[in-house]
Every structure is written in structure tokens, then in C-alpha cells.
Amino acid sequence: MTNYQKILMLVNSIESKYGSIVNCPEDDPDYLRIREIYPSTGHGKSVDDFKDQIYRLAHEGFAAVEVVRLVSANDGAVYDYIRKHRIKFKTVFKYRIAAPSGEIYYVRSLGQFVKSVFKYPPSQSNKSKWLKARGYSISQGDYHWKFIRNGSYYLPPYLDKPVIKQGINSYIYEEDC
Length: 177
Hints:
About 45% of the residues lie in helices and about 10% in strands. It is α+β, with helices and mostly antiparallel strands. The chain is elongated, with a radius of gyration of 26 Å.
């Protein structure tokens, strides 16, 4: 017997006892067997969870595309909610740069980093080689705000100089500049 057939029999039994599954108490043995097969999804909470998830992921530094992928909902609904509520997103940094002096920088662009720290762009087109020649170590990846340590520097595309992270709420948005 399939789960569907088992559930159908249990629902019929409940409806014959109570007239409708809506009137069934939660401690009824047939209802408990249904919940063993199909656990409750908590539909009443799902709308709040959806909103909370979007805000939490945006606050932690995930990009809009990543939020849509991580939230278990319709993609269009997530994008509409983001657009309607004008949720601000933090930059997802592409490079982690360790300076010879020990500072750690998170940047989106090596060219922007070189310009802001050294005040002039190198004549070489390969910024990575130029930085490595000066003792900098570069790692490439997706670095989200949540995982950047306090005391590290970050440089979003709209700032002229790196800023120190001083807690999860210390991010400087473009509108705050």
C-alpha cells in the first residue's frame, strides 16, 4: 500500500469520526499516524520564515541571487519581496588579501585596492603579480560579510579607502557614504 493510500484511509477514518479533518484533535491516533508519514510543515509560520530568511541572509552578506537560491520559495516571489521592501545587500568580496604587515583586506577588485592603498595604479596590467611582488598574499573566492573577522578591512566598490569591520552591523552601504 502506498503512502497516499494509507493517508486516504486515515483521512476517511477521521472524517467519519469528526465530520471533517478540521475538527480532529491533534492527539487522535489516526491524525498522529498521518503526521508520522507526513510531518507538519508549519504553514502558519512559513510567511514569517520566508521574510526572516531573506532579511537574515541579506544581513549576513549574501547577494540577491544567492538569497533566491537559498530561500525555499518561488524565485519570483523572493525577487518581488526584495524589490518591494528595498532590501539592501552587502558586497560579496572576491579577494582576500593578506598584507606583509598582517592586515587582512577583503575587496571586490584588485585594481581598486591598488589605487586606494598605493595611490597610483601600476603600469602592469596584472595587479595580482604586482601585489605578490610586494609581499601580499591573495586568495580568490566568495567572501560574505558574515565570515569576515572583526578588525579586518573591507573595500566595497563605492568607497575610496578600506574600512575596518567592527561587528556585524558596521557595514557601510552606498547610501550612507
